[in-house]
Design brief:
Blueprint (H helix, E strand, L loop, with lengths): L10 H4 L1 H22 L4 H9 L1 E2 L2 E2 H27 L5 H25 L17 H9 L7 H25 L6 H19 L5 H18 L5 H9 L15 H25 L15 H27 L11 H10 L4 H11 L4 H28 L11
Antiparallel strand pairs: 1-2
Catalytic activity: Na(+)(in) + 2 H(+)(out) = Na(+)(out) + 2 H(+)(in)
Keywords: Antiport, Cell membrane, Ion transport, Membrane, Sodium, Sodium transport, Transmembrane, Transmembrane helix, Transport
Subcellular location: Cell inner membrane; Cell membrane
């Protein structure tokens, strides 16, 4: 049966192909980082990331500066989808919402089952994230074998997952607070909201105030990348009050401008800077340490159990609909792909263990191992799954 044509596909569907390609580039960047970190170039790799450019090291410019642009794009996507996209109504957000909740809770519980005491317990949120670029990159390799409804479901789930990660970072991974800088940041946010209310539709004023907001948030002790999300929520989606959504709006224009540089430059650079785990010389126990197992099994088992279990429960209770033209095995394969937690998981690792290189390394091993196995299994399940949907005979 042919899938019905949609007269007005959502913006989320339109950027899926670009996200898939970006995922493949990110895979290459992660592989390159691993090769370099375990080669004679390793000292130069570490020295480059540790070198200071102005007040921050290269690594900090990447993780606090470039990643603020990534979070800006995440915020724009969350706002657009919540107001005029796949998350704009209860029926659209129900299934990915329940799936995202289950996919955050179960991995965290599995991690804590292995790591109940500090400081390791502080990494509970590491396996709770899904990497949309990586996951869609794997889906792109399957072509038409995966129905569009599952691609949209996965992207919407990852966006809700990103929102959850943003909240987690704000609540649980914030250092000591500088009240004067935080007050200054609040004043800048008030100015941004006022510009939105007054109908300012030029992007330049928002971006200039956004730079000031980033600096104040960086100095305040709250992680600087959250400035990107806050800025995104203040940028207008409409060109005028009478036109609630227009492709020429400031939000659409900025989102369109950021997709390529974020997907093909910012995120790969982040992966190149943070995926370089030096395996040579590591003690053997690092590969079976509680943090390694908690992260790896959290991504592999926790995501599968949480996403699939929450989805089937919500469908069974009548709270959500099954994705169109998809079968249960395909939903299970998609849940496995949610165990690819690369970008956000690495980011939370840096926040959870800022002063413990060994715990960072163990978490990265778990991220790489869990994501790799989850991605391979998800691909294989989707590859062999019958192109079916609920209510039709199995083939």
């Amino acid at each position: 049966m042919a899938q019905p044509a949609h007269s007005r596909p959502s913006a989320l569907r339109r950027f899926l192909d670009g996200q898939s390609s970006a995922g493949l580039v990110l895979m290459a960047a992660a592989a390159l980082a691993l090769v370099v970190a375990n080669s004679p170039l390793a000292p130069a790799y570490v020295a480059t990331l540790s070198a200071y450019v102005g007040p921050l090291s290269v690594g900090h410019w990447i993780n606090d500066g470039l990643m603020a642009v990534f979070f800006l794009l995440v915020g724009l996507e969350i706002k657009r989808e919540a107001l005029d996209g796949q998350l704009s109504t209860w029926s659209r957000r129900a299934l990915p919402g329940f799936a995202a909740l289950g996919g955050m809770v179960m991995p965290a519980l599995i991690f804590l089952a292995f790591n109940r005491s500090a400081p390791a317990a502080g990494g509970w949120a590491i396996p709770a994230a899904t990497d949309i670029a990586f996951a869609l990159g794997v889906l792109s390799l399957l072509g038409s074998r995966v129905p569009a409804s599952l691609r949209v479901f996965l992207a919407a789930l990852a966006i809700i997952d990103d929102l959850g990660a943003v909240v987690i970072i704000a609540l649980f991974y914030t250092a000591q607070i500088s009240l004067p800088d935080l007050a200054g940041a609040a004043a800048v946010v008030a100015a941004l909201v006022a510009m939105n209310r007054l109908g300012v539709r030029r992007l330049a004023p928002y971006l200039l105030l956004g730079l000031l907001l980033w600096l104040l948030v960086l100095r305040s002790g709250v992680h600087a990348t959250l400035a990107g999300v806050i800025l995104a929520f203040t940028i207008p989606l409409a060109t005028s009050p009478g036109r609630p959504d227009d492709t020429s709006s400031p939000l659409h224009r900025l989102e369109h401008a950021l997709h390529l540089p974020v997907g093909f430059l910012v995120v790969p650079i982040f992966g190149l800077a943070n995926a370089g785990v030096p395996f040579l010389g590591l003690p053997a126990e690092a590969f079976a340490a509680p943090v390694t197992l908690g992260v790896g099994l959290g991504l592999l088992v926790g995501k599968l159990a949480g996403v699939l279990g929450a989805s089937l429960l919500a469908i069974r209770l009548g709270l959500a609909d099954f994705p169109a033209y998809a079968g249960r095995l395909q939903l299970a394969g998609t849940a496995l792909l949610c165990g690819i937690g690369f970008t956000m998981s690495l980011f939370i690792t840096l926040l959870a263990f800022p002063a413990d290189p060994l715990l960072q390394t163990e978490a990265k091993i778990g991220i790489l191992g869990g994501s790799l196995v989850a991605g391979l299994l998800g691909y294989l399940v989707l590859r062999v799954a019958p192109q079916d949907w609920p209510g039709t005979p199995s083939r």
